[in-house]
Amino acid sequence: MARLPRLTLPGYAHHVIQRGNNRQTVFASPADHQFLLDLLAEYAAKFEVLIHAYVLMSNHFHLLVTPQTGQGLPLMMQALGRRYVRYFNNAQQRTGTLWEGRYKSTVIQSERYLLACMAYIDLNPVRAGLVPQPQDHPWSSHAHYVGLRCDRLVKPHALYWELGNTPFAREAAYAELVQSGINPVQQQALTDATLSGWALGEPDFVFDLQKRTERRVSKVNAGRPALMP
């Protein structure tokens, strides 16, 4: 069976995961992390992709983005991946593949999952036991959102701006949201949807999404939920 093309729709939030082949290290030094972030800034601007959140781990990275065009996200990821592999292979004196095949991604319903996805991304280093608090990990967008640094790569989503009327109020509300954590059901839903490529959202959202693309967006035929008697 031919594999489905990735689900990519302009104007919608997408959660993206790119893993190292066989979970191998893809960032061996701080310079590697910074080089990928520099590439991300370059290609996000070139291909019109808004970067809302990110985290770079040792063997993979997560992005939360909104592409402005239908091809913006795949073009950005292709350019980013190819150029980073050349850099990393030269730096490590290695050859061959670096990534675990194609990047994984899905469309998420912003109103229901965007802030949860941001917390999911921020808490990755904590879940992995790398740091006690998300602000202790230098290679994520968390510090930007809680007012510890200004990150020019980050373009906050409208839902973040709704957290408060002042920068301090937004930062405090977001810090509290992340400290509260993400419930296991949401965490698993975000992981499963991204790895499978099926859209994540309520039935009406999925139904509306299906009308905007010929590519299937869910495992079963999208349809409106039956009305309760």
From TrEMBL:
One of its GO terms (biological process) is DNA transposition. SUPFAM superfamilies: Transposase IS200-like (SSF143422). GO terms for molecular function: DNA binding; transposase activity. Residues 9-124 form the Transposase IS200-like domain. NCBIfam families: REP_Tyr_transpos (NF047646). PANTHER family: TRANSPOSASE IS200-LIKE DOMAIN-CONTAINING PROTEIN, TRANSPOSASE, Y1_TNP DOMAIN-CONTAINING. This is Transposase IS200-like domain-containing protein. It comes from Rhodoferax antarcticus ANT.BR.
